[in-house]
Specification:
69% helix; 161 residues; mainly alpha
Length: 161
């Protein structure tokens, strides 16, 4: 981590007591960054409700490479408390997205479906991007994958005729 930041390990430990503290800070920053980006999309009055939903589904943190299945497995093994925190955040019911989908249902922009089931399907689908090897092997970026997943979830697989 120190090398990535361009500082010495000694400098990092001036600000953090342990690697676990560093991980907690990175996790907190990552999800705060995603919320900030999502809020920017939501507040954009030029976007339709569907465009907002797609945009929020495709939000990535600035350093999404941290959210990778291999890194999470290492975290699970060596930093179980931080892994639980990360896993909980990844599987939690994203309130911002839930609110958008509920608004879209009220506006008849999307079908009236069980919101808890919709959120589970959305979250599980988006979390497939944690396996970045799949996307690398299929020559697709995580951004492209998220956009395509959002399209499939919103528009389905049927042609638009």
């Amino acid at each position: 981590m120190a090398r990535r930041l361009g500082v010495s390990k000694k400098t990092l430990y001036k600000y953090f007591d342990s690697k676990a503290d560093m991980l907690n800070a990175v996790i907190d920053y990552t999800f705060a960054n995603m919320d900030e980006k999502a809020n920017t999309i939501i507040k954009n009055e030029e976007l339709s409700i569907i465009e907002k939903i797609k945009g929020v589904m495709a939000v990535l943190p600035d350093h999404y490479e941290f959210i990778d299945v291999n890194i999470l497995e290492q975290m699970k093994r060596y930093y179980p408390e931080q892994w639980i925190k990360m896993d909980t955040l990844l599987k939690s019911d994203w309130e911002l997205l839930r609110d958008l989908i509920e608004q879209a249902i009220e506006e008849n922009a999307v079908i009236n479906a069980n919101i808890s089931l919709v959120m589970k399907v959305v979250i599980d689908s988006l979390n497939t991007t944690l396996d970045q090897n799949f996307f690398f092997e299929h020559r697709m970026t995580v951004n492209e994958a998220l956009s395509e997943i959002a399209n499939i979830l919103i528009y389905g697989l049927a042609t638009r005729e």
